[in-house]
Amino acid sequence: MENLTPKEIVAHLDNYVIGQDDAKRTIAVALRNRYRRMQLDHEMQQDVTPKNILMIGSTGVGKTEIARRLAKMMNLPFIKVEASKYTEVGFVGRDVESMIRDLAATAMTIVRESENEKNAEKIENYIENKIIEKLLPPLPAGASEQKQAEYDASFARMQEKFAKGELDHLKIKVTMPNNPQMPEEGLPPQMIQVQESIVKVLGGMGKKGPEKEVTVKEARKILAQEASETLLDEEQLKELALEKVEKGGIVFLDEVDKIAVPSNSQGRQDPSKEGVQRDLLPIVEGSTVATKLGQVKTDHILFIAAGAFHLSKPSDLIPELQGRFPLRVELNSLNEEALYRILTEPKHSLVKQYQALMAVEGVELEFEESALHAIAHYSLMANEKTEDIGARRLHTVMEKIIEEISFTADEHSGEKVVIDRLLVKDKIGQVVEDEDTTRYIL
């Protein structure tokens, strides 16, 4: 995945995001440049910094989806934060560095899952042996060869039963994982460090949790965590996660337009907005943040900022922050044709989702072509008459149309239900035509 060309990255994104070719190309090149940078000598690598991206476009046009899909495709740590929330909590609540700590936690989860997958057989063997040892009477020390052979034969028989799930109903005692309560979100960094120190002391410094009697089926899940902690090197996992977050982390800063101070505000400047920008600046420029993985350098983390910029413009951000987002890309608003394509073309489009959900109840759901065009048409009308929420409007409109069928699905098992243009018009036509009703219902 790391070696994908920009064309291959865009082709993958085309399965999930309709249109917005300029944004896809820009972000694909930014990701490819990461791979290119890693092929350079160490000294040159330090000077090649990521070209952060500023996405400009209304809500619901695909800004977040492009970044999220890309991170998922390449198995990279990704986190989305709203820049505006830091103005709400000011300097007393969560500090801006918390986004890097959250990103580090995401990287650790990705690495642990990956290593668990690589060691799946070892983990499964560990779980199997632990459970069978608890079910069989222990073999006395210095047992004869005959006793050892009998024990081994019993163990082999239990292994067969375990594999078939025949032992799942039996009960055994297992030691529960010791998960001390972690520090609360929303505390200043100094308080978090103090709480973490207390947790380490009071949490027992690696003490085991209490014993509990559970079924073998439940024990499998509980012992999976124990197996992972026993078989995997925790320090090595931290090193891998640290490397992953520093070289591949993506931070998506949404609503960045809401921390801009419009030039026409006539002296009514909000100091908290500019304060958040100045707090963000060192992290985007490159600084070191203390996390549970250790010190994370943010120099090569990719930052993607996004905003609608209806009431402000990118030039209203402080110059230093503007300079840290050299790549600008404007996303197009969605017209009727784009909404229709979003309904039908993506790999897991809304139409396919509803058809799959109804198939669970034995209902075959069919959408006539004219109905799909009507849904796109009414969604566009609703966006024009009220707040433009882009493709998210499709969710509201579709839910309104399918609501009755979904509620009575059990009565139509084995039947085929056709959604035609008349049904769409009946369900939402009048709602959309009345602007006041649209505001409350759609």
In the CATH hierarchy, the architecture of the largest domain is 3-Layer(aba) Sandwich
**Low-confidence segments:** 180-186
**Strand percentage:** 5-15%
The backbone outline, from C-alpha atoms, is globular
By CATH reckoning, the class of the largest domain would read Alpha Beta
Mean pLDDT: 84
Q: Please give the count of helices.
A: 19
Sheet with the most strands: spatial strand order: 2-5-8-1-9
Q: Biggest sheet, open or closed, and with what strands and sense?
A: 5 strands, parallel
Question: Helices and strands: which structural class?
Answer: alpha/beta
CATH superfamily of the largest domain: P-loop containing nucleotide triphosphate hydrolases
The number of distinct structural domains comes to 3
Distance between the termini: 40 Å
Percent of residues in helices comes to 40-55%
N-to-C order of helices and strands: HHHEHEHHHHEHEHHEHEEEHEHHEHHEHH
- Assign the CATH topology of the largest domain: Rossmann fold
Number of strands: 11
- Regarding quaternary structure, what we see is single chain
Radius of gyration: 28 Å
